Amino acid sequence: xxxxxxxxxxxxxxxxxxxxxxxxxxxxxxxxxxxxxxxxxxxxxxxxxxxxxxxxxxxxxxxxxxxxxxxxxxxxxxxxxxxxxxxxxxxxxxx
Length: 95
Hints:
Blueprint: H1 2-12, H2 17-23, H3 28-39, H4 47-57, H5 62-65, H6 69-84
Helix pairs in contact: 2-3
């Protein structure tokens, strides 16, 4: 799941594998090969790296872990709406 969505988000952000990797804190020399291995699901990034990749790609980290594509799309849409109207969503923890 992570690989496919990582590639989609990277392409949507108009970044190369190297650019994404470097912006997420990977070494420039290995950035492209590491991102490629994640996109091809040869390896999986740890959660800390997923959070950094998500921040660079401006998507919630939950997007990468959604069990199906419909839920992943919903997560992206919710994130987009939340950014447009930050006060429109009431926190469940608010009293």
